[in-house]
Amino acid sequence: MLLNVLSKEEKFYFLDLLICVVSVDGPVTDYEKQVLSLYKAEMGDDINKYRKSNLKAEQLMDMFSEKSKVIKNIVYYNISWASLSDEFYSAEEHFILDDIQKKFGITNRKKVELLKAVYAERDLKEKVKRIVFE
Q: What are phi and psi of 98, to 5 degrees?
């Protein structure tokens, strides 16, 4: 969501960071690959030239920590959504989300607001599924 606000370079680094997050607990699952594809589609034509960088998660966090508050909130929201959208809890992903929050300077209050939005979106999708399949 709102990934079109990111610059081309930021989109590429966002995907790099997202890949670091979803692979922290093991190989990327088919579901996580679907999420990556959804994000790539949302980013538009810019993403056609994407090539994974060699930057580590820490370096990517540092790069985003220098961006505007809006960019950091968008990146944190989307990475949280991707991490929390599957049905499995991963302590490793939880810890890296905490690291991202700290590096980005996101307050606990803002984190709660963003996570509420993640869960609200997830709940809405589940509600639509139930309605459609009833």
A: -60, -40
Tokens of 22: 């979803």
Q: Please name which of 67, 24, 18 lies closest in space to residue 47, comparing C-alpha atoms.
A: 18
Q: Per-residue pLDDT tens for 27-70?
A: 888 888 898 888 988 888 878 888 888 999 999 999 999 999 99
CA 121/CA 74 separation, integer angstroms: 15
Containing 98, the helix (H) or strand (E) segment is helix 91-104
- With beta carbons less than 8 A apart as the criterion, state whether 58 and 16 touch: no
CA 120 to chain centre: 16
Domains of the chain: 3-133 (1.10.3680.10)
| Token couple for 21 | 């997050």
Can you list the alpha helix ranges (DSSP code H) found in 26-107?
30-43, 57-65, 69-84, 91-104
Q: What is the pLDDT of residues 73-89, one digit of tens each?
A: 999 999 999 988 777 77
